[in-house]
Specification:
By secondary structure, the protein is of the alpha+beta class. β2 and β3 form a beta hairpin. α8 packs parallel to α9 and α10 runs parallel beside α11. It binds (2R,3S,4R,5S)-2-(hydroxymethyl)piperidine-3,4,5-triol. (2R,3S,4R,5S)-2-(hydroxymethyl)piperidine-3,4,5-triol binds next to loops.
Length: 736
Amino acid sequence: MNCRSITLLTATLISLSAIGDAVAQNVKIDAGNTTLVLEAEKGKKLRNLYYGTKISDTDAAGLRSALGKGYNAYPDYGMITVPETALSMIHGDGNMTLDLRVDNVAERKDKDGNVTEITLKDTYYPVSVKVNYKTYPGEDVMETWTEITNNENSPVTLTRFASGHLPIRGGNVWLSQLYGSAKNESRLESAPLGHGMKVIKNRDGIRNSHTAHSEVMFSLDGKPSDRTGRTIGAALCYGGNYKLRIDTDNSNNHYFFAGINEDDSQYHLAPGETFKTPELALTYSSDGTGGVSRSFHRWARNHKIAHGDKERKVLLNSWEGVYFKINEKEMNNMMKNIADMGGELFVMDDGWFGVKYPRDNSKAGLGDWTVDTRKLPKGINGLIKEAKKNKIDFGIWIEPEMVNTKSELYEKYPEYVIKPEHREALTGRGGTQLVLDMANPAVQDIVFNIVDTLMTKYPEIDYIKWDANMDIKNHGSQYLTADNQSHLFIDYHKGLAKALDRIREKYPDVTIQACASGGARANYGIMPWFDEFWVSDNTDALQRIYMQWGASYFFPAMTMASHISASPNHQTHRRIPIKYRTDVAMSGRLGMEIQPDDMTDAEKAQTRKAIAEYKEIRPVVQFGDLYRLLSPYDEKGLASLMYVAPQKDKAVFYWWKTRAFYNDMLPLVPMDGLDPDKTYTIRELNRIDRKPLPFEGKSFSGKFLMENGLEIPYNHDLPKADQTDWSSRVLYLEAN
Ligand code: DGJ
């Protein structure tokens, strides 16, 4: 292939200045405002020369001289043994070395983007690795993944298989990551990268974001800022066990690797077989962590979540209202209430199913998705009829990947659960929960059929909450052969993907929420089939500010299910007024998770007004650009963010006081993302004060608002009896 003069669809091949005797080829891949440059000379190692802000072809051609040596773009183990590598394998003959060299560069169009494929071939063994880079028109995010093909006569064993690698020059580089635990997910943590190895990993088997997350950011200019600084974002698009490694070695550079966690998961590739790694999404911005978030959000809405172009409905979920005590009267009552408050959807959570083994608590029923007519005499159809009467839609909870030992499904098919041979399976929730073995095609059929049966019987189901409340506790597939037991963690997710593909093919329109004991399934591996995720089983408004702040680093507001719940809160027991609870919930996909009968008439009236106002700002919140203004993690007594419509003609500003001290002075928050030349009129939403704010109805230039901000009173102006230490504001800005 003569590459030198060819300009491909998005990747440009540029002939470089001579390096030694050879002439190298640069592959320049532009994604929106970013550029990746690789050196791809046939017969040589593939090298990464540059990743950052968009550069010209001329600058790309001179990179070697400007920036020094390139780094191995996809390091392979064996002929180098000391540094960290992306790929390692044991060949059929036991040899543990790889020596991959560039063989070919090609480009193809796929359904929504362009893929640059660089094929590497081993110098001795018939093994090839295709390193792929995908770009989407107009997006600043590119995805990379590999396809590893075994053309040997016998199986090879993959022992490490990262999706991608990125070298990052040493300096004052900070890493931002999310960590947490159940009911405290997506907490943000930022720290400088020191020497040694930083590993962020997951081994849950099923859900992978309860603790750490597989998304990170690197701030190249010191302490992360949401407004400025060169920043790289990376998100591994995978729902299973992952491992992110950052090795800072004696060269002082940082070597970042991300992929499926290879621990206890070595993978045998039969002759002729190809192993495809999940995508690693990369982006770069000079506008700090905020710029990276906005790029991820846009890419996600356009390409990586289900129905990213559709507004999400305001809903009431039954869980915190009644827990397992599902019954017809209560469901009907809840539907009437959410409809009265202006909601658009009711979701019946856990507890509606099980005939022989009724689901009265977490100990029984999973697997038997037949309606319990003791609780719901008119069945699901009766509920749907009632929903229609109330002019709202109806949704339902399921946990298809799981089973209780107390279920008819388990009695019939005990061989379908994950269980090591010769041993009893360890149970999870309720002491009887087990995981179905998604590696088994028969189980994939069962999972597909659960949804198919529900949707066939009740085609008007509008929304499914898909839960997953257990990990893979012990290693053992009753389906996989003895020599392929190490495939379990990976084949589980391949099987889940197959079932989800079938579901989406047949039911493209139904809304599906990814829930997993709260926010354990917030990742871009799962999101393409799902519309949103349940951020946390902790609905405390104050703690949600911190969790949703963290999640917003990578996920857009429309994916974050954010519900108004009871006071005192069921998890933290904190008492927070309805105004503050609503103002927090209104910053994501607004919903409710409450027994409406426990609300006062005044609270209901206030919620009705808030829902109406949320509908007005919904396009800005759900499709707008996020600007984080003041972080709750800075502990300045305040958190603030805003969403700005793409045309910059509308914006919504949120302000939440996070502590109350007498004579405390809160920072003035300059706004961001507005058009400096536009004039915006301010209107407070969800207002409870007796008197309007001094700037209500007044107009200010975007320039003024971004350079100064608005002085917001410390407390609400309320009669003494109603005064609390909580204070929050939602302001709607409309350009004149
Ligand atoms: C765990 C989820 O996170 C909750 O919201 C609820 O759906 C329960 N499962 C139901 O069992």
